[in-house]
Amino acid sequence: MRKSKLLKFNLLMLFCVIASQGMNAQGDDLPNILWLVIEDTSPQNIGCYGNEAVNTPNIDQLAAEGVRFANAYSTGTSCAPSRSTIITGVRTYKMGTGNQRTTYPIPDMIKGFPYYLKQAGYYTSNNSKTDYNTSNASSIIQNSWDESSNSAGWWNRQAGQPFFSVFNYAGSHQSRTMTDSYVDYVKNVLDVLPDHLEVGENDFDMPPYLADTPEMRKEYARMYNGISLTDYNIGKRLQALEDAGLKDNTIIFFYADHGQGMPRQKTNGIGQGYKVPFVVWFPEMYKHLSPFGTGGVVTSEQINFADLAATILSLAGIESPDYFDGRAFLGTHREAAPDYMFVSNDRVDNGVNVNRAVIKENLIYVRNFTPFQPEQRYINYFIKGEICKLMYEDFTAGKLPAQQSFVFEKRTPEAFYNLSDDMWEMNNLIDDPAYANEIAQMRLVLEQNIIQSKDIMLATEYDYKRLPGGTTPYEYRNTAAYNMNEIWQAASLSGFTGSDVKQQQIQFLDHQNDLVRYWAAVGLLSQTGLSSADLEVMATHLADNYEPAKIYLAAAIYENNKNETAKLILENSSLSTDPDLSLMAIELIQNMESFKDFGDHVQKVHNETSGVSSLWATWASADVLMYRLKAANFAFNYGTSTIAEQVITDFETPINVVPASGAAFSVVQNTEKTAINQTNKCGQLKRTSTNWWELIDIPCNFSIPADEVAYLHVLVNYPAQPDVVVRLNSMGNEMNLRTIHEYDALGEWQDLVFILPGGSSGLNVTNVRYMDDCGFQNSPSGFVLDNLSKFGFIDEIIVNNSSARRTISTSTKTPEMKRDYSLIARDQFIAFQSNTGQTIQFEVYDLSGKILFSANKSIHNFRVPRSGVYIVRIGNAIEKIFVQ
């Protein structure tokens, strides 16, 4: 009996051991695969690619032990198009997903490639960015990932189940490196980056196309520290993998989703936009899957993002579906590298564009079909960044040398660079006879690829929305209706100049194919030798019933002879409720040398599209134009105004202000009296929700005559720059009115001025809906107010016939106080600015009298070491200031 029990016990233990081994082993020895994906980073900014200033020890270690790819390229130059190809394995110019953030459908047969891993038994997780750029995104996410969230990871798999886990890192994203405010950068990057990893403002070399000034270095250092922070966080993930005992059977990929989030890189269709860092690390048990070897090997074999889907399936022993465009460069189904790779660059946000490129190792041939746009396109998300503002303002002031000013000038229709010798692409070799044969061959293979792939991005988004029911752009390109040969005849000419090209383009204006006429019009915009006879013929086509062709033709005509009919077409189209037509028109105005001719109209577009979600890109383009017009000191004509001045409220007498949604309002004592505001009381606003529509309703009673305007003035005092909107009579998005001037006197009273249109019938105004914290255009980003300590204050609300800001109090007309500077405490900084523009001696001391900073400056933001009271000396003036 005892022997029988002992035998049963031993068999049970043996079964448990076998079962335990089975739980920890992975079926068929399938490798785990880990992706570490970072944002907006070029290879020359990573340590293992030769940059000695940046701190990337974890990425460098992966490269030292794995395989580093010297010729890795994204297929697009911004997030969504790149990730569209990554997840599907299909080119954007086949699917119609080349424009940033679109929602056009793709065929159901095209799946996210992790779907096939799931079918093979893998656990798949994504943490957490998707950005798949199609209306199919939700089904792709559902079918591709067992979990896609900011808490997803390999740890939720079943025991022994192989995993494919993706982690996305935002520390190097453009928002951190150039677009968000410097205060946000300090909070989100510097304050969380260990001190020993911080890169100083003088620790690196500047690219030759950027001015080497202290102001530019301050901004460029943000990029270095964003990358260093990203590497630091990658190190934590690698340690977690090792702590879980999984590193020995996990293949690790590291790469960036496209080029650096800096001017002339991200969104630009040259090597700067496409080339990415790419490293693969193999554990000992899977080193046989690398055809290159390991241990720090560097391969020159060229790869691109269309190859990633096939490669991951190959590592798992899975054959790729036929619709994939890429090839496996690792694993059991590896294929040889082709001689040429093709990449594409289309619209990003409001920046309309079409260019294509072909790459052979480190040679890149670029074809610009819309060269009337500069390399640094006027994309709202870029131009709002301080580094772009510095560049543009130096450009308009004529301060930039040729090697820096060219980024804001028209492009050439073709470009050719040798990236081995010219990392920053400063030397366009398109006319160099030494490369003539290579250029001719690359030009030919690019043309063949465009025709054979039936590049659907040569159609417009206006066309996508008018496809026959249920047809996707991917499928439509293969129908007879999309005659690629005809379209290419016209598109292939676009950007080139000369009499022969011009005459062909004018003849194409009579073609029956809408897209042929469209590309003829696009091409004519680049022509420089249009005669009066040419323009007369072109003008006869301004009644074209295909709107995109008519709009481009109007721009080409107006640039040459200021034709009023052409101008009216552009103005009417920019106010279209069709988002594709309105964006097309306003972007053409954006890129015309005569853009200032449209100044007052741009202001109208800016006002009427503000807050209309479907017209966001149009508003974004108009917003950039408003910035450029103001930089050029354009004198806006806001319209006739005869209304007599009327005080709506100064809060000295009771008024029934109603907090309509998300806001708390009360009348409080005015503790910050200045020359501009001498009242005893003011209104206080708090935010009580996380909705963007925090607002109050203010009763009033005034009338604006027909075809006139009135000016609403509101004194405000905020802790940061808010996004303020007013609406009249509680109207909706159609009456979103923003201030003429930004609030820039942080922590002090300042007058905000709004233009109120009377319209064609006049307007009786009984209510002003004041929305002071919408969160769309705040600086720093996010909401300005809360319900605890960050409040907004408003006072002395009046309506009158003047667009000029008030500088003295309406209620008392006290003489204006004179001060040669402004001094503000905000979020760990002392912000100083000379009001005269002249430099002043600016010094900061702690309370012990120790000097912390001293310089002759006209503007400076000094970061204090800790919260407390500081003594500031400005010229002969001495002030105490408390900084939180």
Spatial separation of the terminal alpha carbons: 80 Å
CATH class of the largest domain: Alpha Beta
Count of spatially separate domains: 4
CATH fold-level assignment of the largest domain:
Alkaline Phosphatase, subunit A
Q: Which structural class matches the secondary elements?
A: alpha+beta
Structure description:
With 884 residues, the chain is α+β, with helices and mostly antiparallel strands. 30% of the residues lie in helices and 20% in strands. It folds into 4 domains: 22-337 and 348-383, Alkaline Phosphatase, subunit A, CATH 3.40.720; 486-631; 646-800, Galactose-binding domain-like (Jelly Rolls, Sandwich), CATH 2.60.120.260; 821-883, Immunoglobulins (Immunoglobulin-like, Sandwich), CATH 2.60.40. The protein contains 26 helices and 32 strands. Helix 8 runs parallel beside helix 9 and helix 23 crosses helix 24 (579-590). It is globular and about 80 Å long.
